[in-house]
Amino acid sequence: MPDEQLQQNWKPKYNPWLIAVVVALAAFMEVLDTSIANVALPHISGGLGASQDQGTWVLTTYLVANAIVLPISGWITSIVGRKRFFMICIGLFTASSVLCGVAPSLPILLMARAFQGAGGGGLQPMAQAIMADVFPPEQRGLAFSVYGLTAVVAPALGPTLGGWLTDNYSWHWIFLINLPVGLLTLALVFQLVEDPPFLRRKKLGESRFDYLGFSALALGIAALQIVLDKGQEDDWLGSHFIQVLTIVAVLCLSFLIIWEWFEKDPIVDVKLFKLFNFSTSTVMMFLIGIVYFSSTILMPQFLQTLMGYTAEKAGLVVSLGAALLLVELPIVGVLTSKFPAKYLMAFGWLMLSGGLYLSVKLVSLDISFQTAALIMVMQYLPLAFLFIPATTAAYIGVPQNKSDSVAGLVNFARNIGSSVGTSIAQTILARKAQFHQERLSAHTALGDGNFQSALNGIGSSLQLQSGVGKADGRAGALAQFYHTMQGQASVLSYMDAYFLLCAAAATMFLLSFVLRRNNPKATEQHAAH
């Protein structure tokens, strides 16, 4: 029976919505773990006797292993089968989470995090690919709204949950909570999920392992991820270490694309980029990762570093936007079957640019909890209009037996985009804070009469209040001025970051109209190639 007839006749044994919830739970566990560890890094470093710089490798190790597995997940499923690969990933992720939770030293924790990242790398694309196959094309938008909970809501809840567990228990529990969830998900996947008949596995010996392609991928991704994580800390290309890694990343990834294009059995199916909808959706997902993820980390970071919020309280600011997104996602899922993706995405980018412009106007050292929550709501609500249409459009015109490769590459693009966006945001904050501090310090020269008058006034107040001498009062006044100047410079840097992201979102609004107009009412998958 031809593949086209198989895919038309096949239906899952169990309710597709039940399958969607189960596979989304596995992906949710993985995405949550990516953000939940961020807030616990100081506790992990202290508990294992490591420096703060060494502690950041807990994140980098995970991201490198995760990024390597994502683009090759389609090839792996062609060898071992989708269900088996999905279960292997769940088992590996769960077991390595336990090892992370009981790790007695940093080297063991880093090794466990590498295994955890490798297992987690297959969870998101397999969950998405399974949803793409168990639902007909006209229902995929609504189905991907369930998947959107994992990719969008989980990063918002991670810092809150991580902060609460770390503050009330210990950092070990941010990993150990994966054990019951992982075991439950593993049992449910075993019972409910099956491989469609049109996903034929390659026989043993029919496919050879592309050692050269995999080596280029692993080395290139590892170098790129380290550059993104350590670039600002090491002054980017001012560091010889970053220069070398940048050259390695460019050479290896360029070689990978050329090699895989002509490889008979490629480990990364780069020829999918010949399909216009897939390539544009992947690029759009990469840009969503840059703009969205960099914008959503700014407010929690601002509240913790400048306003003295705990990670848990900063997470609560995000929670309202995440809660509203839960209601919005299925609505947008329905809209994808009624309106072309390009218009929904244009609306999303327009909303996001407006929300970011509002952030420029509202962010200050006097910001209230309610205002900060409003900013996050304005940044979260547009995401459903970006994520779901881009994900849905990626499968249009793609053969159904390529679902795994599509899911792996789309999720890889989003993850790399989030790393790029995070690096850009941190670089802007650091460079602009220094720039604004230099400008503000020009008004604090000792020869400036206004500055001297203000300094003497504060010094006199300190003398009266604290009973200190004139010299100590003046020193205290200078310290207050310096602290205030640092705070104002930081606020201005956040305003600059929001403004640049606003400009990027506005640009993407215009570029959305370049996308081809898809038929949202299509009831059949486009012809396979």
Task: Report the span from N to C terminus.
Answer: 17 Å
Quantity of strands, as a count: 0
Oligomer: single chain
Largest sheet: none
Briefly note the structural class of the backbone. mainly alpha
Radius of gyration: 25 Å
Mean pLDDT: 85
Strand % is: under 5%
Count, helices: 21
- The shape, in one word, is globular
Q: Low-confidence segments, ≥5 residues, pLDDT <50? A: 523-529
N-to-C series of helices and strands: HHHHHHHHHHHHHHHHHHHHH
Model description:
This protein is mainly α. Helices cover 76% and strands 0% of the residues. The protein contains 21 helices and no strands. Helix 2 packs antiparallel against helix 11, helix 15 packs across helix 18 and helix 16 packs antiparallel against helix 18. The chain is globular, with a radius of gyration of 25 Å.
Write the layout of secondary structure elements.
Layout: H1 3-9, H2 16-36, H3 41-47, H4 52-55, H5 57-80, H6 82-102, H7 106-121, H8 123-134, H9 140-168, H10 173-176, H11 178-192, H12 211-230, H13 240-262, H14 276-305, H15 311-335, H16 341-362, H17 369-380, H18 383-393, H19 403-441, H20 449-466, H21 470-511
Helix pairs in contact: 2-8, 2-9, 2-11, 5-6, 5-7, 5-12, 5-19, 6-7, 6-8, 6-11, 8-9, 8-19, 9-15, 9-18, 12-13, 14-15, 14-17, 14-18, 14-19, 14-21, 15-17, 15-18, 16-17, 16-18, 16-21, 19-21, 20-21
